[in-house]
Amino acid sequence: MIAAKENASRLTPEEYFAWEEQQLEKHEYIDGQVYALFRNHKSGGSKNHSLISVRLTTLLANHLEGSDCETGNSDLKVNIAATNNYTYPDISVTCDERDKATTQYITYPCLIVEVLSSSTEAYDRGGKFRLYQNNPALQDYLLVSSTRIEIDLYQKTDTGNWLIINYKAGDAINLKSINLTFPIEQIYRNLTLDPKDTAQLSS
């Protein structure tokens, strides 16, 4: 997703929550400013984006069934810890008991997933990731291409640094935050992708 400023006036968090309930679109809230979310539908990737999001959400939810963890889709806000900022990732997972006390958002996700498009990639890799790094419970940040078989995993190390792991066709993704490993082909099979990637899936 990418955000466009909705108006110049600043809102308190309480005003933002009350105002957004009356809107047809979702809005992120950053430093008192409200931003409408939209996708670039010109790229032809919106169908892939939807299918990838559903597959990943289902995969994560099934894996975590019966645990204390919760999987949220793109309708669930994430509060940036120690701030009044709120964003909408494509998928989030929390295993933190403190998040059970809130009904409109979570604050302590251990895993966040963003499905990329040409209009969102720079924001998801840059400004949005910098915001997410303020969440102390976050261990895995997964960036998933919607046009080719490629996933980047930003994984927090024991020293607090972020290790970037690039996955391509034939690889298995390892999410330490929820103890899950799965083949990358599970996400991309039968999608319309770059011809080279489609050939790799068929081989």
Mean pLDDT level? 89
* Domain module count: 1
- At the fourth level of CATH, the homologous superfamily is tt1808, chain A
Distance between the termini: 32 Å
> Looking across the biggest beta sheet, what order are the strands in?
4-7-9-10-11-12
> The CATH topology, please?
tt1808, chain A
**Number of helical elements:** 6
Query: Low-confidence spans: pLDDT under 50, at least 5 residues?
Result: 40-45
Beta-strand percentage range: 25-35%
Describe the largest sheet: 6 strands, mixed
What best-fitting shape do the alpha-carbon axes yield? globular
* Rg calc: 17 Å
Secondary structural class: alpha+beta
Helix content: 10-25%
Say how many strands there are: 14
The SSE order reads EHEEHEEEEEEHHEEEEEHH
**CATH architecture name:** Alpha-Beta Complex
Which CATH C-level class is it? Alpha Beta
Organism: Phormidesmis priestleyi
Domain Putative restriction endonuclease: 13-176
Protein name: Putative restriction endonuclease domain-containing protein
Pfam families: Uma2
